[in-house]
Amino acid sequence: MRLRSGYERKRARVEMLPLIDIVFLLLVFFIYAMLSMVVYRGLKVELPEASTAVVRTEEHVNVTITAGNVLFVEGTEVAPEGLVRAVRVAMAGRGDVPVSVDGDTGADLGMGIRVLDLLRRAGIEEVSLRCKEPGQ
Fold first, then answer.
1. What is the rounded distance in angstroms from the CA atom of residue 129 to the CA atom of residue 133?
2. Do 69 and 107 meet the contact criterion of CB atoms below 8 Å apart?
3. Which domain holds residue 70?
4. Which of 41, 52, 76, 90 has an alpha carbon within 20 to 30 A of 61's alpha carbon?
5. Quick check: is 37 in a domain?
6. Residues 6+ apart with CB under 8 A from 45
C-alpha cells in the first residue's frame, strides 16, 4: 500500500529570498573590491606628517622620491634628466592633470627641490607634495 503525502503534485521552485541575499552579497563584495582599488601608482614610502594635510582624490600623475633619492614616475624608475619627459608621457591622453610628489622622509630636501624646479621650468605649475596626517 502506498501512502501519499501530498508533496507529489508540488513542483520544485526557486526561492527568491536566498537568491536576493546572494546577489546583494556579491554586489557588496564587488563594491568593496572596487573601493579598495584606489588609484595609487606610487611606491611604498614613509611620508612626512603634516597637521594641515588634505586628501586629494582627483586623478594625478605620481612622482615618487625614495629614501635613496631615486625617482619614479607612475612606478617606473627615471633619471632626473628624463623626469619631465616621463611626466609628459604620463599626462598624455589625460589632459592637464596635476602632479603629486611623494617624498620619503629619508629623501634629501635637495632632490625634492630639484624635482619641483624641473617641473616648474617645464611649465607644469600644478604640483603638490603628498604627506600624511599625524597618527596615521
1. 13
2. yes
3. 61-130
4. 52
5. no
6. 64, 65, 66, 67, 102, 103, 104, 107
